[in-house]
Amino acid sequence: MPFRRAIAFFLPSAVLATALSGLVYVAVQQDLRIGANDPQEQLAEDAAIRLEAGASPVGVVAATTVDIATSLAPFVVVYDVNGTVLATDGQLDGSPPVIPIGVLDSARETGHDAVTWQPRAGVRFATVTVPWSGGTVMAGRSLRLVEERESTILLLVGAAWVATLVALAMASLAAGYLWPRAGEA
Q1: Is the pTM of this model over 0.70?
Q2: Is the pLDDT at 3 greater than 90, yes or no?
Q3: If both were cysteines, with which of 8, 92, 102, 107 could 129 make a disulfide (CB 3.0 to 4.6 Å apart)?
Q4: What is the distance between the alpha carbons of residues 85 and 108, in angstroms, rounded to a whole number?
Q5: 93 and 12: one domain?
Q6: Is it the case that residue 4 has pLDDT exceeding 60?
Q7: Nearest-angstrom CA–CA distance, 110 and 102
Q8: Could you give the CA distance from residue 81 to residue 108 in angstroms, rounded to a whole number?
Q9: Is residue 128 part of a domain?
Q10: What's the domain range around 57?
């Protein structure tokens, strides 16, 4: 009988602990991922403003070239209305990065598009694309560090969840045995 009581105490507590652990992980993961777009928002919007003010496409990208497959540095790509690269400070496998045309079209239609782009296995970027009168500007940067942090958070939350379940099981067993039996007061 005490073991059955322990199970009755443990099951709802385990469900609650699981739900709360999942909530913590999702909240932190989403904060990390959404925050990964912040520098690109600023870079893309500032470049578009400068282009609208008459700056040349070459004038809104950095002077140094970034190998975006290995670097954590952000990069900017200026596209014309047809999706042709006008200027960039990023290179992917020796060529300018060309994001799918649907992203550029969406940015022109909605005024903004933020996507995760994976041009090849093992290379993922957080990108933000905004329109300007001559085309679009895309800014991106590697998600490598963000994804490493997400993995660390998953391990930490998973370990805390297991420890919580063990503690709940022990507490439930103790409560099951301490619960007064019929006729005891």
Answers
A1: yes
A2: no
A3: 107
A4: 16
A5: no
A6: yes
A7: 12
A8: 9
A9: yes
A10: 37-142
